[in-house]
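User: Small ask, check this?
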Amino acid sequence: MTGQMDVAHAKAPGDQPAEKAPTWLDRVLEFEVGPVAHGGHCVARVDGRVVFVRHALPGERVRAVVTEDRHGAFCRADVIAVLQASADRVEAPCVWARAGGCGGCDYQHASPAAQRRLKADVLAEQLRRLAGVERAVEVEELPGGPLGWRHQVRLAVGPDGQAGLRAYRAHDVIPIADCLLAPSGMLPPVLEREWPPSDEVRVERDWAGEVHVGTGTGPDGAPVRRRVGDRVWHAPPGAFWQVHPALADTLCGVVADWAGAPAGGRAWDLYGGMGVLASVLAEQVGPDGTVTVVESDRRAVAAGRAALADLPAVRWRTGRVERVLAELTEAGRPDVVVADPPRKGLGRAVVDGLVAAAPDRLVHVACDPAALARDVGLFAERGYRLAELRAFDAFPMTHHLEAVALFVTE
């Protein structure tokens, strides 16, 4: 669809400038909702324009108010009334999960099972559109239920010194009293305090239930105890760790099943953090093998060295994957590579480097369906096929998911 309102045309002298199309901002629309789309909204078409609408479900008929219109081919809207509801619709447990409310949750109005189906539809659509892969997708439930799972929260602080959560696509701070995604009792003591305006407050709950609080400019020095299986990490405050308490163990189980690193072999753990997945690879290769962890966060590397000191196979490289990949390849071909990149995924340069290294198997952990689908297509072009795929509902009530893909050579 072309956004003809954005096209500038040359004008002859004396011509009157073309009138700008009237904005749809604050306009109330009534329409039938189409399919779910990546990003926590559904898609509808109104008068030739695409409307990305939140708080809706496919097949519903709704009334929605336009919240954003930049005079392109699409606009954004929030549901204000449901005229014909989906059978999957439920009452949102949080009062801020509504039009004009918090931007954190996307699917509180859908049953947990429906949320997982929506996420599966998004991942399948991204694979089909970006990688040309037709694949049935199931998003698996993690233990613990849809609430109380978020053991790490970053709060914004408003001009009045009150901490809260951001409104959707805005800088406004919502003055919440609690968040149902966090464990009971974790946030209220923090939200009742006054903080430096415009700061950020980090709240982390460790495996033993202790809550650690720090600000973006002044993190406390107490390590946060993290546990996977029988191993404990003393993590630096604010260092990356999976926010769902069951996800790290789940990912370790998938890597243990799929990596297949041979005894005495060579494995890489890229974007390895504190070496959680490296600990699994080290068990597979044994003391005569090597597991090289590449991580750019020096604090995470230090914590990983301490936690994995009893695993002689594990070696550490501090640096960006893009910068050390060629050097690793020169040192010898890996049998297996595990990569857990940030949301942007691997991308062309890293995929090219991994293909040049020629591992037999590659396990790719991803938290963005579009980035994963793009990487699936890149690997396919270079002779690595998608052999296995699992996805997990590691972020209930939101549109996010965690996926793991296994690539093998053709």
